[in-house]
Each structure stands twice: as structure tokens, then as C-alpha cells.
Amino acid sequence: MNVKELPEEMLCRQQEYIRAVADLNTGKSPTAFVDTYGCQQNEADSEIIRGILMEMGYTQVFDENDADLIVINSCAVREHAEQRVLGNVGQLIHVKRKRNCLIAVCGCMVQQPQMAEKIKKSYPHVKLVFGVHALPRFPELLYRALTGEKRVFDIEKSDGYIAEGLPVLRKDKTKAWVSIMYGCNNFCTYCIVPYVRGRERSRDPKKVVAEVAALVREGCRDVTLLGQNVNSYGNDLDENVDFSSLLEMINDIPGDFRIRFMTSHPKDATPRLFDTMAKCEKVAKHIHLPFQSGSDRILSLMNRRYDSTKYRELVSYARSKMPDISVTSDVIVGFPGETDDDFEETMRLTRDIGFDGLFVFIYSKRSGTPAAEMEDPTPRSEKVARFQRLFDLQDSMTEEKSRKLLGAEVDVLVEAVQEEQNGYNLLARCESNRPVYVKGEPSLVGTFTKARITDSSKWGMYGELI
Ligand code: SAH
Ligand code: SF4
Fold it and tell me: Ligand 2: which of 186, 293, 304 to mutate, judged by most atoms within 8 Å of the beta carbon?
């Protein structure tokens, strides 16, 4: 099988560095704080960083002021995310003045050479910087930073490899992220992801299945399979396996658990995917299918390789197979050259589909992408007005959907104990992934049960356990 895995020797070497840092830490009980920005893939990467740190003898803390080591896992997808990262990294100078901590910045933002350079020049309190592709070398890089090297930077560019067998410290026992593939080949013209995360590479299906089976044995009840475009899973493997067949294999794992996945690209979503979802009883009837724009002209400028008709057909097909399927999406307003008419097409598609949830983003120029070179005459105030109209439209539609559910019985998984608000002490989630706040015994965490919806708000629904 042609899986692009890192060689065993390299990973063994990193194990030696883990032991070497653990030796340095002997008798010291050091603490570490890992902060994550951006998507679920970054969350999953941070769980690996925490796993490595735990093996090195660090204890996890949740306040940067208490940490001997601070790792900021950054995001590059929009300028706003980068500004937040830079703002917070800037603030850390005050923490460092009070406590002699080591500050590291990693992830997508610093994979861009100009951003790594910016940190080098303007943030001298940051000692360690490593990009997405250097994550498996984190033990070695940290060892170098701890043993006298002044500053350590590793943002080596790469199409990317897969590192199997790294330690993982998961946040949650009930829920888990499982990456099934990395990178992206789609080059949507607005998006930085393919430049920072490298080419698509799929994990060995046997390893994915083994990981999920182990999680389920340990009590996990909700597994989200991650990839930038899960529908192209397996395209790079010579074995005859695609995302639908992987779903079937995971569905066959014994145990009571839910399977989720994200994200699906409409150009690669097929009737076969929806047929598979319909017949696999463990697969949550929810699809996150970003449409990005309702205008065919803009979709083409975005290099999305589908049109609004195909998108509508996909959702209709999915609903014909699974009438209750929840459909959520992402959309960008204010793409370069988007006219009022283009935007009205986006409004129309949003109204027609009736999404269960929608993430609306204002276009953010990413340097190095083709869209950054396109004429963009629309003033920011106009983009903000479009954003608000679309946001309000979706808000009212979400509210109406929640109202319709009042009195209904829904299947939920109780996920966690939360800070009590009006007596609601448990966070549960229904199949569509929407939160349902309920009251009950903490021992219910990790169990599937039914709730009757009694109330709803913008943030979720409230219910009573049946
Ligand atoms: N791979 C996933 C999404 C990755 S980024 C997919 O293709 O669906 C998550 C979302 O961020 C995208 O769906 C898009 O709506 C938004 N996004 C990406 N680049 C952006 C940019 N330059 N400006 C604004 N939004 C962007
Ligand atoms: Fe970005 Fe498009 Fe790849 Fe998603 S599919 S990560 S939006 S390039």
C-alpha cells in the first residue's frame, strides 16, 4: 500500500527526544498550556502536542500565567484569526516577564514564511516556531530550545507525510476527532489551506479502523472523522477504498457509538455517499456541505467545480434518502467582484435549502492565493451589510427550525457536565450536532438517551430527559 507514512526510524528518534526532555524535567514537575485557534484539524494536532508533552512529564494547565511552556497552535484561514493569534502572542511578553516560561508558536499561520519572519523580527520573546509539517519533530525542536539554542525555527515546506503512532492526549473521553487524511488538492482560489497543509494524503484504512475500534472500547461514543475534503479519501491510495467504503468499515465496528465526518466538498459528494449514510445506522444523519456562494459565476471564480444546480440536486437526493437529515454549510460573502445580483443568488439558495446551521464569513484576502490578485471594488461597509442580511436570514430560519422541534423527542448523547444555568447542568447533543441542555445525574455522561425539547434559544435547545 502506498501510504505516505514517515519512516519508523524517524519516529523512533523522536521517541528518544521525548525521553531526553523527560530526563531534563525529572524532579521539576513542569506545566504546559496549549492554546488552539481555528479548525478541528488544529484541535486534533493540539491533542498530539499535549500527548507528547504528557510523556515528557509536563502537567497540563489551563491558564497561561501558570505555565512553564506555552504552545500557541495558530490558524491562517482568515486575517482575523491571524490578528487574534498575533495579539495574544504579543501579550505573552507580560507573562514572560513574570515567569520565565518558554513560548512556542506552531501551526498554519507560521507555515507561511512571511509570518514566521514577522515573529522572528517583532516577537523576540517567542523562542520556538514550527510549521504544520514539523509537528512530528516537535520533541527534537523542543529539546533544542530547552538546551541552549537561542531560537529554534522550523517551517520546512513539504507536500506532507503522515505520522502514525504519535502520543495523543484527548480532551474528552466521550468524543474524539480522528484524522483520516491530511492536506488539500482543491486550491479554491480564496483559500490558504492547500499552501500550508500540503497535498492530500490518506491514512491506511486499517489504521483508521483500529484507532476507532480502540476508542470505542475505551468508552468513546462520538467519533468525528476529519479531512479537508473527506470525499476524496483514498484517491491517493492504490487499494480500492473510498470514503463510503471506509464509513462502512467503521460502521461495522461493534459498539454503541455515532460516526460524524467533516468536511464534504460538493464536487466530490456522490449519491453513493448518501446511500451509504442512509444504510449505516451509526452514521449521524448530518452533513456539513459548504456551498460558499449561490452564484455560478462566483463559484467558477472560486474554482469550486460545481454549480448551484448540482448543489441543490445533492441536497435533494440526500433528503430523499434521509428525510430528517440535518444540512449545515459555510458561505463566503464579498468574494472579489461579487455583485448585488451574485449576493442575491446566495440569499436565494440559503432560503431555498433551509440550512440547519450556516457559518457566514466575510471574504478575507490571503496573500499568495489567486483571489488576492483579483479586482475587489466592493467597499467593506457593503460586505458587512451583506454579511448582516445573510446572518439575519439564517438566524430567523434556525429559530423557526428550533420552534418546530418544541415538544419533539430527540435522541441525544450526554456529553459533559457544564456549569449550571437555570438548573441545566448537562450538555447533550442531538444527531444534527446541535446542543441540547438538560438536567440530570452527572453519571449520565457518555450515555445515549432521549430528550423532549421544551425551549430553545440562539445557542441551542433545552430539554427534559425521558
Ligand atoms: N476544507 C473545508 C473548509 C476549510 S476552511 C471545505 O472546503 O469545506 C473553513 C471555511 O472557511 C471554508 O469553508 C470557507 O467558507 C472559509 N474560508 C476559507 N478561506 C477563506 C477566506 N480567505 N476568507 C473567508 N472565508 C474563508
Ligand atoms: Fe480550502 Fe477549498 Fe481545500 Fe476547503 S477544499 S481546504 S476551502 S482549498
Answer: 186
User: Is the CB–ligand 2 distance for residue 370 below 6 Å?
Assistant: no
133-185 pLDDT, tens digit per residue, is: 999 999 999 999 999 899 999 999 998 899 999 999 999 899 999 999 999 99
Distance from the first to the final alpha carbon of the chain: 49
Atom of ligand 2 nearest to the CA of 265: 5
Does residue 229 line the site of ligand 2, with CB under 6 A? yes
Q: Whose CA is closest to 346, among 400, 379, 383?
A: 383
Atom of ligand 2 nearest to the CA of 77: 1
Q: What is the pLDDT of residues 184-228, one digit of tens each?
A: 999 999 999 999 999 999 999 999 999 999 999 999 999 999 999
Atom of ligand 2 nearest to the CA of 192: 1
Q: What is the pTM of this model?
A: 0.96
37 burial level (CB within 10 Å; 0-12, 13-18, 19+)? buried
Closest CA to 432 of 221, 284, 266, 315: 284
The helix or strand, by DSSP H or E, that contains position 358, with its residue range, turns out to be: strand 357-362
Grid cell, residue 384, equals: 458587512
